[in-house]
Amino acid sequence: MMRSRFLFMTALCVSLGCSKSSDNGSGSAGGSGGDKQYQIAVIPKGTTHEFWKSVHAGAQNAAEELGNVEVLWKGPLQESDRDGQIAVVQDFITKGVDGICLAPLDSQALVPYVEEAKEEGVPVVVFDSGLDDESNIVTYVATKNYNGGALAARRMGELLEGKGQVILMRYTPGSESTTQREEGFLETLRKDFPQIEFLTTDEYGGTTPESSLDKATQLLEKFKDEVDGIFAVCEPNATGVLGALEETELAGKVKFVAFDPNAPLVKGLADGTVHGIVLQDPVTMGYEAVMAMVQHLEGNSLEKRIGTGEYIATPENMNTDEMKTLLNPEQFED
Amino acid sequence: MSGAQPKPTEDTPRLAKHAYVTRLLGTALGPFLALGIVVLFFAVADSMQDDGGAFMTVRNFRTISAQTATVAVAALGMTVIIIAGGIDLSAGTALALCATVLAWSLKEDVAVLVVAGNNVQGVESEIEELQEKLDRVTREIDRKEATDSDTTEAMEERDTLEKGIAAQQEELKRVTKIAASTSRYSPTLALALGIGAGCLCGFVNGFLISYLRVVPFIVTLGTMRLYLGVSKQIASETTVRPDRETQVPEWLGDFLSIRGKALWAGLPIGVWLTLVLALLLAAVLRYTVFGRYVFALGSNETTARLCGINVRWNKIAVYTLAGFFVGIAGLYQFSRLSVGNPTSGIGLELNIIAAVVIGGGSLSGGRGSVLGTLTGAAIMAVITSGCTQLGLKNPVQDIILGIIIVAAVTLDQLRQRRFAD
Predict the structure, then answer these.
(1) A121 and A210, same structural domain?
(2) CATH number at residue A61
(3) What is the mean pLDDT of residues A72-98?
(4) Going by DSSP bridges, is the β-strand pair A255-259/A276-280 parallel, antiparallel, or unpaired?
C-alpha cells in the first residue's frame, strides 16, 4: 500500500510541476497600464487547426496593446466536441472571468449556456460562427460570408468575361456560414452577370475533402463539355474540387474560385489551376473579439455585428504584401 | 493432521478479515483517496491564484456533477462488462446513436409518424415541392405559348401536379387532426426508442460475442463503426436539430441544467437519477444471483461454465444491461446538447473505460465496483474543470489525465500481484 501511494504522489507532483511551469507562461500578458485588470476567456472551436492559432495571435495582440487584459485561451480537448466546449464555458463562468469570447461549435447546442453566462453576469461575445438565438450576446464578430460569396461571384464573372456556364458545389445542409457564401455567390452572379448560367446549384460536396472529391468528379464528368467555371465554398470542398479537376484533366481549363486557403490551393494559384481564393482574416477576428469585449466592459455600446473583412487573392495580386500576410497569417507562439 | 486442525480455524477468520479490509481499501477507498487528493490539489492551487477561490464553491461541484453524469452513467454499464471480463469499445458511438435516435424521434414527431404514417412537416414539404414544380411548369407553358409551341404535354403535367397538391392538402388535414391528439406522446415514445436503441446495441454486442466466439475487443471495435454508420444514416450525415422551443419538452432540456429553476434539492435531476441507478446496480451486483454470475464469469469463465452457469446468455444479459445504461447516457447527452450528432460519441468510450479503470476495475475481469467507477468519473471531471479554472492549457490537461490513468493501472497491477502472493 505504501509503495502504491508513493507512486500516486509522484504522479501528482509531476502534474503539479507541469502546471506551475505553464501557469507562468500563460499569465505573462497584461500588467502595465489601465485602471482595471480584465480576464477574458477566448474559446475557439478547437485548438490544433492553423486557423485558430491565427485567431489566438490576434487575441493576444489585442491584449498586449491594451495592457490590462489577460487572455485565457482554452478550447475543447477534441475538435468538434460540443459537450467539451460546453464544459469549458461553464467552468469559465464558475471561475468568474470578466467576459467570454466564444466561437460556438453548434449554433443550437450552445444557446442555453450563453444564457446561463448572462444570468451569472458574464457577458459573451460570439465570433466566427453565429448562434440561433442572438438575444443574449454582446456582439457577433465574423467574416461577412455573404460578401465573401459575392466577391467570388465578381471574380468568376471577370474571369469568364460575363458569359459561360458554372457549377456551384454546396457544402452541407444546415451550415450557416457556408449557406451565406452560397447565397452571396448565386445572387451576385445572377444579378451582375445575367448571361452566366448555372449548370447545377443543389449538389452538396459534404464535409470532407474525400466526399467533395467524389462529388466534384461526378459533376465534372457529367458537365465535361459545358462547364466553364466552378466555385467551392470552403477549404475541404476546394481541396476536393482541385483533385477532381486534375483527375478529369480539366485543371487550368475550367476557371476555379475557392474559399479559404491551404498549401495545395496556394500552389494552384501560382501555377494557374486556381484562379481566385476568397480569404478571411482570422488575426483580425481574434483581435476584434477581444477589443469588442473590452469596449463592452468599459460601458461603450457596440454594433450587433462586426465584420472582419474578406479579400480575394488572384494569381496577379498574390505576391503583394497584403495578400502574402493573409495567405500566410500570423500564428500564436508561446 | 487432526492435531493441527484447531489452529487454522482460529487463524482463518482473522486472516480473511484482514484480507477483506485490504481489499476494501484497495478497491473503494483507493479511488476515493485519489479523488480527495485531486480535489485538495486544485483547491490549494486555485486559492493561490490572485483571483481564485471559485473552485471550492457549491456552483463548481454542481457543475462538475452535471459534466460528469453522461460518462458516469455509461461507465456504470461498462463496470458490469469489465467485471465480467469483457470490454465495450462501441459504448461511445452507441451513446451518440441513442442521442441521435432520440433527437430524430422528437424532430419527426414520432408518435404521429407511427399513427398517421406521416407527419405535418413531411406533408408540408411535399406540398411545397409540388408547388415549386407547378410554378416551373406554369412558366414553361407561358414561354411555349409565347413562341407558339406545343403545350399539351406541359398542360397534362400541370393537371397532375394540381391534383397531387389537392390530395396532399387532404392528407395535411388528416395528419394535422391526428397530430392534435397524438403529438404529446412523442417525447415519451422518443425516450423509449432512445433507450431501446441502447439496449439493442448492447444485445447485438453480447450476441455476437457469445455466438461468434470472437473476443469482445474485436467485436466491439467492429460494432463501434457499425453504430456510427447507423446513426449517420439516421441523421442523413448531419446534425439532427429538433426545435428547442416546441419539440423538446422542458424537463428534458433541464435534465442536466445547473440553472436555478432546473435544480431539485440542490442538484440537477439527472445527477440524482445517476445516483439512484448506481445504488440499484450496486444492489444487483451484490445481492442477486446474476450479480454473482457476473463476478464468476470475469474471474474464470471456464470454471463458471463447469459450475453450470449459462455463459452465453449471461454474457448477452451483461451487454444488454450495459446497453441500457448507454441508452440513458444518450438521453443525458441529448439533454445537454439539445441536438443529436452522430460523431459526438467518438472517443467517449475511452473516457468511459478510463472511469472504470481509475475506479479500480480490473481489465482482466473479476473486479470492479460501482462506487469506484463513480469516483473514477468524478476524478476525471474534477481534473478537466480544475485545469480550465487554473488556466492550464489543453496539452497539460491531457498529460495529467494520462498520468492519472497510468497510475491507476499501475495500482491495479500492484494489487493483483499482492493478491497473487
Answers:
(1) no
(2) 3.40.50.2300
(3) 91
(4) parallel
Q: Are residues A127 and A157 in the same domain?
A: no
Domain that residue A244 falls in? 145-280
Contacts of A15 in chain B (CB under 8 A): 396, 399-400, 403-404
How do B267-268 and B263-264 pair as beta strands?
A: antiparallel
Residue A146: is its pLDDT beyond 80?
yes
| Contact yes or no for B258 and A109 at CB 8 A | no
Residues A153-188: pLDDT tens digits? 999 999 999 999 999 999 887 677 888 999 999 999
Contact present, B370 and B281 (Cβ < 8 Å): yes
Domain count, chain A: 2
Output the CATH code of domain B28-113+187-416.
Answer: 1.10.3470
**Domain boundary residue among A260, A280, A300?**
A280
C-alpha angle A54/A55/A61, rounded to 5°?
90
ipTM: 0.84
B chain contacts of residue A236, beta-carbon cutoff 8 Å: none
**Contact call for A206 and B237, based on CB within 8 A:** yes
Closest CB to A12 among B37, B258, B341: B37
Q: What is the largest CA-CA distance in chain B?
A: 122
Q: Which three cell numbers stand for residue A286?
A: 481574434
Do the beta carbons of residue B231 and residue B238 sit within 8 Å? no
Whether A247 and A213 map to the same domain: the answer is yes
Which residue from A minimizes the CA distance to B258? A116
Report CA A332 to chain centroid distance, whole Å. 15
User: What is the residue type of A163?
Assistant: K
Sign, Cα dihedral of B22, B28, B34, B40: negative
SS3 B141: helix
Rg (CA), chain A: 23
